[in-house]
Amino acid sequence: MESSTTESTSSTPPPISGQYGSGGTTSVPPSNSSQSGDFMKQLTNALNRAKFVFLNPHTCWDTIAAEPTTVKDLYLKYAIFLAAIPAICGLIGLSIIGISLPMVGTWHAPFFGTLIAQVVSYGVGLAALYVSALVIQNISPRFGGSSDLTSAFKLAMYSLTPIWLSGVFQLIPVLSILGIFLLAYGIYLFAQGPTKVLAIPEAKRLNFTVISILAMLVVQIVLGVIIMVVSPTPNIGMPNSPSSLGTVS
Fold first, then answer.
1. Does residue 5 contact residue 25 with C-beta atoms inside 8 Å?
2. Contact by Cβ (8 Å): 30, 16
3. How far apart, in whole angstroms, are the C-alpha atoms of residue 161 and residue 128?
4. What is the dihedral of CA 121, 124, 130, 135, to 10 degrees?
5. DSSP character string of the chain
6. Quick check: 23 and 1 in contact, CB under 8 A?
């Protein structure tokens, strides 16, 4: 499909309509597009959108703010795909690839125990996203911004994009520490959005960002502790322990 829009740059947000990459453009696939339930198409659209958000930390918020959508669509057409990256890569990295230990060998975490832990982590992450949006929704008016839940959800969700993408480092567990850099980038990405998405006055943007990030961190910690208490996951332990704690090859 030919596009009448010139090729986008990092300073110009691409048009919302159209297929990402179609006709040589970098159009962002809309979260509320009425596409078929084809899984691979939805996955491709989500990953292309993540690429756009990651590479355009300033201009992406103009596109996101103008896009009509719902919390349900944001979940089903973006969050569920991106949030799965750390879970899937963590399972593969710990159970299949393993951790190389000097003079010991390669330790592999028990598959089913790790699977349960990653599924729980995935669910907690999606729940924390919604709670974080509720918190942001209630904080925003105190800084002169909008109380719209969908807008708050957009800000919370898209700012998690670098953190979700950092999950690929878990394929090689010793590289997981590199995720700290993408965590910092996620905070930077969040800081670019309040004025455009929630109409927070520029003079109050920094204070709003600090308070919101701290609130989101508290949400993650509280929900994580609750899940650990209610549904404790198996101890995947140390090498040379019983087989339920993993194997060494």
1. yes
2. yes
3. 15
4. -110
5. ---SSPPPBTTBPPPSSS-TTGGG--PPPPTT------HHHHHHHHHHHHHHHHH-TTTHHHHHHH----HHHHIIIIIHHHTHHHHHHHHIIIIII-EEETTTEEEE--HHHHHHHHHHHHHHHHHHHHHHHHHHHHHGGGGT----HHHHHHHHHHTTHHHHHGGGGGGSGGGGGGHHHHHHHHHHHHHTSHHHHS---GGGHHHHHHHHHHHHHHHHHHHHHHHHHHSPPPP---TTS-GGG-EE-
6. yes
Mean pLDDT of 49-58: 95
Closest CA to 96 of 120, 115, 82: 115
Classify residue 99 as left (phi > 0), alpha (psi -120 to 50) or beta. Answer: beta
Give the chain's end-to-end CA distance (angstroms, integer). 52
Tell me if 54 sits within 8 A of 46, measured CB to CB: no
Residue 97 predicted with pLDDT over 90: no
Rounded Cα–Cα distance for residues 92 and 97 (Å):
6
Q: The whole model's pTM is what?
A: 0.78
pLDDT in tens, 15-34: 333 333 333 344 455 555 44
Instruction: Retrieve residue 76's tokens.
Output: 């089903």
Distance in angstroms (rounded) separating the CA atoms of residues 35 and 200: 33
pLDDT at residue 9 tops 80 = no
